[in-house]
Structures are given as C-alpha cells and as structure tokens.
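User: Sequence recovery, please. Input:
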C-alpha cells in the first residue's frame, strides 16, 4: 500500500481494492480539522501499487470543497494575470519583435531569429518565442497576442502546482500553496510580461510533478518525463533550468522505490533524456551551415555552444563576459551575499514567505525523521527544499548579470513548502504541548520580513507594515501557547496568520497589475528606498519606454555594463506594415522615419539596418518589416562584418542603414566595438545621408549609391 500523506484524517474514505485513500480523499471541513490528526509513518512504496497510479485527483472521493478550492485559486491567478494585461503595450520589445518574426517565417520561428529575414537570433533558445510566435500567427500582432501566452503559462502553473502539492501534502496545503504561487509579486510580474521566465517556470513545475509521480511507484518513465521537461526548459533559458537537477538526483537516489541498481538505472536514463531534450536545438544550429541560418545572437563565434557556456551560461554565474572581460551584476540586483534575496532589489519580489518556507523545510524533514526511506512526504520536502536552497544559493552569490525577476524560479518551491509546512506544523501543535513553537516562529519571521519590506515603500498602503507585524505577532503568540482553544477560535487564528502573511504580497501584486511596465529589467511593486537605482514599474511612458534617441546615453533599466535584456514597451502598430496606434497605445515615436522607410521600400530583405536590437525592435514592430539588428541584442556581437554588410548592400538585400545607435559602454566582449566602428565609418563616408523630414536624431543613410560607385 502507498499512502500519499502521513496525516490520515478521521472519516477518510476507502478506495477500491481495499486500500485507504488517505487524507487527499478525506472529507476535510477546515484546515484545523484536516491537520489535527497524529502523524503516521508511511509504509514503503510498492513498485506497481494500484493505489499509487490513481492517487489523489481532483475528482472521485475528494471532499466537496476541494474542487471549488482548486477552481477558486485558479480564478485568483486568472484575474491577477489577465486583468489590464495590455497596459504595458509590447512590454519587452526585444522579445515582441522576435515573436513577430516567428509569426512571419517558420525558419525564424525554429531558430529564434529576431527578424523574419533571418539575420540574427535572440540571445536565448527559441521555445519562448515559438510560443509567442504561434499566438501572433493565430491572433495577429498586438499586445494581447504577445502577452496572452505568458498569462496562460501562469494560470497553468498555479493549477498544476495545486494538484502536485495535493498529492504530497493534501488539499489544504494545496490551497495555501496555490494562493502563495498566485499572489507572490514576481509571479504577477512575470506572468504578465514577455520575458522567457513564464514558460520556464511552468515547465519546471511540470517536471516536479512528473518526478514526484515517479517516486510513488518507482517507474523510471516518470523520471525520464521529468528529465525531458527540464530539457525543454533548457531550451527556454539555458542553464538556469538545471538548477532543479541536484534536488531531483539526490532525492531519487535516496527515496525512489526499488533496489540500488534500479535507482541508478533511473538516474542514468534521466541523464540521457535531459541531454537529448536539451541538445536538439543546439545540435541543429551547430549542424546547419552558418550561411543558411541566422547568426547566433549573444555569441562571439556564431555558435550555440558559445552562447550556452558564455554570455548566457557560465558568465551569468561567474561574471565573465563572452569576450573574456568583466560583467558584474551590480546595478540590477545588488551585491552578492547571503542576504541578497532580502535586499531592496529582490526582497519585495519574492522574500515575503521565504523565512516561513525555510522553517517549514526544517520542521517537515524533522517530523519525518523516522519514516521509511521511500516516505513520499519527506521526499517532497527534500525535493522542494533542494530546489529552493540550490536556486537561492546561486542567485545569492552569482557575480554575473542577475535580474530581480529571475526570482520567479524560487516561487514554486516556496509555495509548496509553505503549504505543506503549514499543515504539518499545525498538526504538530495539536498533538504536542509546545508543538506550536515552530509554526509560531515561521509566522513571526515572515511577518517581520513583510514589515521590513513594506517600510521600504510606506506610501503604498500606509500602516500596512505595522498592521502585518502586529497581526503576525498575535497569531504567533496564540499558536505558540499550549492552549486548547475552541475549534472556531483555532480557525480564526489560522485565518489571521494567513491573511497577515499574504497582505504584503497582495498589496505589491495589485499595484503591479495597474502599472505600465517596460524594459529588460522589470520589477513588481512600487519603487523602494535603497533601490540601487533600479528602474521600477511605470518609470517611463508606455508609448516611449526603451525607445532612446539614437546616440543617447543609456536609459533606465540598462545594466552597469551597458547591456539590456531588450528595449522597453512601445505601442502596437496598426495594420501589418503600417505605423499607427492600436488599443490606445502610442506608436513608435519617430513616425516620420517609419513613413519614409515604408514609402521607400523595394524588394530588400531588410527595411533598414540599425546598431543593436534595442533600436531595431520598435522600428520592426512599427513597420511590420524585418530590421537588421547589427551587433544583435546590445550591438556588440561581431555581425555583420564590414565585408558582409557591403555584400548585403551590393546584392540588393539592404539599402538603408541607421548609424549612431547607442550600444553601451563596456558591452559584451571586444569584437563588436571595432566591428561597429568600421561599419559606421564606411557607411558615413560611402553612403548618402537622408533628410527624411523627421525631428528625431536618427542618422539615416541611403547606401544604394555606394553600390553603383563601387562600394
């Protein structure tokens, strides 16, 4: 027999086959009633137990309130992620432009090309832009079609996490976990934004669900499925996906049913699966001749392997640039150190319930100390705890570029630990005179954290920080004291504790829903004291954010090294190929440039070439035509060379070039700097400056004459 929870509840239903279905199928009227029964050690799992294959679901013998709770938590997520979704326009125009390209060309869709003509890729694998590209292809280009997939990923993440936590810890824990996942500020930010992290988070949560299913009966196919999902996540955001693998590997080796040989076989099969699922795009890029595919953006050698190991891989952790130079993380998420997750840049995004989750991890593992090796609840604690500790350690100490929104990867683990720990620590209080102390400590620690975070933005909800601290302290005292209160009083205390701990995240999240957010370094909530200069929501008008005049200094959201993760938001274009406003969003600011380029366009593959994708993205979205982003993301990639640029012009694939776009001081590596200078020098001397009638500072050159003059 396999039991999915060590806390059987009186009145549990009996499933078919003569086995108790455990608390996941119990008629649970409230949190205290669900958590009050004594803990019991789960027996070792049988490899092919029927009960494990039909363990807790959202139907069948569940209590009547469970399905409404699941629907309610999912509805909360849907409201937070879909309401006012288009307020940010195209949000990160870098990825919006790539989504447009993916909708126009299947080749661009597969390679993750920034432009439909296939000059250069974005500096990530293509899975996230594939998803957005399909949405744009079906629904047409708009803020809604670009951002809807992100919101749907978020809603699915909350719904799936509820089901996963329910299998391990029961429906009460699942409800708490779902709420925490839904309302954490960085979740609300990312699931309304088009950076790749939304899909990354969903895939990793699905991988956790498959992994835990494998622990129920020891079937290797579930471990392989988890590995494949992690491999797919790798094709969203590279090595960050692998941060969950240490926890998966250790827990499988320790807690999976079966012999040592079978567990080792599961690990070997999983390694093979994750390598294959991770490597298909890298292999395709390396095998396809460079002449017939886009240049790999973010690399210095036109290599996907260079991207994995360089700028978007190990450089993010150790701080070296793709060209071997320094790339510090300062300016985004503060100084590396053990308390980084609580600082002004990261704290308001994710730290609210981190202390409670850590207390829950310690208490949960300790409570299962005498359980059998294959105990499923302890395995769940170890898996989520390993996920949290490894990811938190990397984020805390990495010296490369780290954005505050990366913290969304911590939220599923925090939510699951908070849900499971709340239920188990409440049960400990019910059966032990001083058993409420761990739960009280978790409540008080997170209430104090919330007070500190809210005091950094006192104008958000005046007095909320003090109210949370007082309510949390009262709840902690009542929980800690060995008083056998009436059930209704216990329930009221539990409700006060939950409300106090969620008040701060909810305040930050509701604020985020109402704000236009743009740029490559988005953050949830208001500007905070000691923010380190980080640009917050609404730091620039939605119609102009991230669209800097050519030659201007870096805008808010640019890194100390001059790089950005994309341009800011701008309004959606009108009908494809024509500039204009849509849905009340502002159009590209230099409309005269857009009109001139459209009127002058012939059969060229690219309507214009500009220095960096940050400059190219707004023009591409406004015209609906491919724009050559010379130098890639920040203008520093060594593509095209001067000879290649002259070749594009001579062949008639390119006519217009804009010179002088800011690429940023100290941008990645050295090659792009000299390459850009050579190109600019040649264009300004060999091509004709165009007066297109605009008031902007765009230096537009017509290079058709350079070809007839011999280049």
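Assistant: Recovered sequence (711 residues):
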């Amino acid at each position: 027999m396999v039991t999915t929870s060590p806390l059987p509840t009186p009145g549990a239903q009996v499933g078919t086959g003569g086995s108790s279905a455990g608390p996941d199928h119990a008629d649970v009227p409230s949190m205290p009633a669900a958590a009050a029964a004594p803990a019991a050690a789960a027996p070792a799992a049988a490899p092919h137990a029927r009960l494990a294959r039909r363990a807790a679901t959202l139907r069948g013998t569940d209590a009547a309130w469970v399905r409404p709770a699941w629907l309610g938590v999912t509805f909360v997520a849907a409201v937070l992620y879909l309401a006012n979704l288009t307020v940010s326009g195209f949000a990160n125009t870098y990825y919006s432009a790539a989504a447009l390209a993916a909708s126009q060309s299947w080749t661009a869709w597969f390679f993750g090309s920034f432009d439909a003509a296939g000059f250069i890729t974005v500096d990530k694998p293509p899975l996230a832009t594939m998803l957005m590209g399909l949405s744009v292809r079906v629904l047409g280009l708009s803020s809604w079609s670009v951002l809807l997939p992100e919101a749907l990923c978020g809603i699915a993440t909350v719904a799936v996490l509820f089901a996963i936590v329910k299998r391990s810890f029961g429906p009460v824990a699942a409800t708490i976990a779902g709420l925490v996942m839904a309302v954490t500020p960085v979740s609300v930010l990312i699931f309304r934004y088009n950076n790749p992290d939304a899909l990354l988070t969903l895939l990793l949560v699905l991988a956790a669900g498959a992994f835990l299913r494998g622990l129920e009966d020891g079937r290797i196919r579930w471990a392989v499925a988890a590995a494949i999902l992690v491999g797919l996540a790798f094709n969203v955001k590279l090595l960050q996906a692998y941060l969950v693998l240490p926890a998966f590997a250790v827990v499988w080796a320790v807690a999976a049913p079966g012999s040592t040989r079978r567990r080792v076989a599961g690990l070997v099969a999983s390694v093979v699966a994750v390598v294959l699922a991770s490597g298909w795009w890298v292999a395709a890029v390396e095998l396809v001749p460079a002449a017939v595919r886009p240049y790999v953006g973010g690399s210095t050698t036109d290599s996907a392997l260079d991207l994995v190991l360089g700028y978007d891989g190990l450089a993010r952790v150790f701080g070296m640039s793709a060209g071997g130079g320094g790339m510090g993380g300062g300016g985004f998420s503060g100084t590396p150190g053990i308390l980084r997750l609580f600082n002004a840049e990261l704290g308001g995004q994710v730290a609210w319930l981190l202390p409670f989750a850590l207390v829950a991890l310690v208490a949960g593992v300790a409570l299962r100390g005498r359980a059998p090796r294959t105990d499923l609840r302890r395995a769940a604690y170890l898996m989520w705890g390993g996920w949290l500790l490894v990811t938190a350690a990397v984020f805390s100490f990495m010296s490369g570029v780290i954005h505050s929104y990366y913290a969304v990867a911590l939220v599923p683990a925090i939510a699951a630990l908070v849900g499971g720990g709340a239920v188990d620590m409440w049960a400990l209080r019910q059966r032990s005179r001083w058993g409420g102390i761990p739960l009280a400590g978790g409540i008080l620690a997170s209430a104090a954290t919330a007070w500190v975070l809210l005091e950094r933005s006192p104008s958000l909800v005046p007095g909320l920080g003090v109210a949370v601290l007082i309510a949390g302290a009262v709840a902690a005292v009542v929980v800690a004291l060995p008083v056998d209160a009436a059930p209704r009083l216990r329930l009221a205390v539990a409700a006060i504790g939950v409300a106090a701990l969620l008040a701060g995240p909810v305040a930050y999240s509701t604020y985020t829903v109402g704000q236009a957010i743009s740029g490559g370094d988005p953050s949830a909530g208001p500007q905070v004291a000691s923010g380190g200069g980080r640009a917050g929501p609404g730091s620039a008008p939605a119609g102009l954010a991230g669209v800097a005049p050519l030659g201007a200094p870096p805008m808010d959201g640019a890194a100390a090294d001059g790089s950005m993760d994309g341009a800011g938001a701008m309004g959606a274009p009108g009908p494809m190929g024509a500039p204009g406003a849509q849905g009340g969003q502002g159009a590209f600011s230099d409309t005269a440039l857009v009109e001139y380029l459209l009127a002058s366009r012939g059969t060229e593959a690219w309507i214009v070439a500009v220095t960096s994708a940050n400059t190219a993205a707004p023009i591409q979205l406004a015209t609906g035509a491919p724009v050559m982003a010379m130098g890639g993301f920040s203008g520093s990639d060594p593509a095209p060379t001067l000879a290649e640029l002259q070749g594009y012009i001579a062949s008639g694939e390119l006519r217009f070039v804009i010179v002088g776009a800011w690429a940023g001081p100290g941008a990645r590596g050295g090659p792009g700097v000299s390459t850009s200078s050579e190109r600019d020098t040649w264009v300004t001397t060999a091509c004709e400056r165009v007066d297109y009638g605009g008031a902007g500072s765009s230096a537009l050159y017509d290079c058709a004459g350079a070809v007839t003059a011999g280049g």
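Confidence is low (pLDDT under 50) at residues 1-60, 321-331, 531-587, 662-672.
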